[in-house]
Task: structure prediction
Amino acid sequence: GAGVSQSPRYKVTKRGQDVALRCDPISGHVSLYWYRQALGQGPEFLTYFNYEAQQDKSGLPNDRFSAERPEGSISTLTIQRTEQRDSAMYRCASSVSPSTDTQYFGPGTRLTVL
Amino acid sequence: AQSVTQLGSHVSVSEGALVLLRCNYSSSVPPYLFWYVQYPNQGLQLLLKYTSAATLVKGINGFEAEFKKSETSFHLTKPSAHMSDAAEYFCAHARGFSRDYGGSQGNLIFGKGTKLSVKP
Result:
C-alpha cells in the first residue's frame, strides 16, 4: 500500500474485554514496530519484528500484551483483559530493513477503555 | 540509559519569526537522531535525521537541525515560521547500533514533544 495503515482507527471497549489492533505495513518493509503514546507524551516502544520474528518485546508492559506477525507482513497487537490504564494511542511503524533508519508511521489506533 | 529531553512543551512564535525547538540526548552508542512532526489526526512524519554524516542536516519544509556532540544537542530550527508549521514536534533517538547491519536498529526513544503555535 501507499503507507502504513492501522485498524480500527478508534476503539472503545469495556474493562476486561480483549482487543486486537491491526497494522498493515508498507509493502515489502521488513521491520515493523509498535509504540504506545499516552496523552501529552511521546511514543513509547512496545515491540518490534524483523520479518515474522519478534526481535524485542521488552517494552510490553505485562503479559496481557502480545503481538504477532505470522507471515511477516500484517501484525496484530492483542491486549487481554483490558484496563483503563491501557487507554492510549497505539502506533505502528515500518521500515525497509533492520538497518534503515527511517520508520514510517501509521495514523494510529485510539483505544479507550471504559 | 539512553534518553531524549525536549525543553519546552509549548513554543509560540509569530509568523515569519525564527523557530527553535530544543532537544538534548544521552547515549553511550553512536547517536542516530531524528525529528518527527505530528499534525492533528495524522501519523508521525519524518522531518529529518542525523546518521553520523554531516552535522548540519536539512529536512523538509525548510527545517534543519545541527548535531553538536559537545553539547549532546540536536536542536531544530527554521528561519521563518509559517502558519502551516503549527504542529507537535518530537525528537527521537535510535536505541541501538547494529554491527551486523551497520546501522541503527530497533526502537526509537522519543522525547515528550513540543507543541508549536504560530501567531499571525
User: Anything to note?
Assistant: Chain B has no helices and eleven strands. Chain B has a mean pLDDT of 88. Residues 42 and 70 of chain B are 35 Å apart (CA to CA).
